[in-house]
Design goal:
6-stranded mixed sheet; 6 strands; about 140 residues
Length: about 140
């Protein structure tokens, strides 16, 4: 399993350093439960495998102060892929569906057009409307 899941090229460390350096914690988002989000640009991922890039969500979702983790990955000039994870209180699939995607209550995704800032603003609005689980 290590070669598949726990092994990355050295350039992954450079990408991770750049992306984590730009990661933002928004404590007021997701109905006050917190959102941590990272943006991965096309420059960040030059020659990396998709698996290497996809691993970023697993790193930032461990942020204690945030119920929801989101990663936007640039696909084109104004095209982004979003990955969402929740600890257990916010139904992120509802937010993903509102942005044109889908998934499960605790893990979902979407693809959207626009600037990263605009998509993050839309995501914040949708997370504030998303159903809370167990209530």
């Amino acid at each position: 399993a290590r070669p598949l899941l726990d092994s990355h090229p050295f350039d992954w460390l450079r990408m991770l350093s750049a992306v984590l350096g730009r990661t933002v914690l928004d404590s007021a988002a997701a109905q006050g439960l917190g959102l941590v989000h990272a943006t991965i640009t096309a420059e960040d991922v030059a020659d990396l495998r998709r698996e290497d890039v996809d691993s970023v969500i697993n790193i930032i979702r461990g942020t204690r102060e945030a119920e929801v983790a989101a990663v936007l990955r640039q696909l084109g000039a104004d095209r982004w892929s979003g990955s969402l994870r929740a600890i257990g209180r916010v139904d992120v699939s509802a937010a993903a569906r509102a942005l044109g995607g889908g998934g499960h209550r605790l893990a979902a995704g979407f693809t959207a057009n626009g600037s990263a800032e605009d998509i993050l603003a839309r995501l914040r609005r949708e997370l504030d409307r998303a159903p809370l689980l167990g209530e």
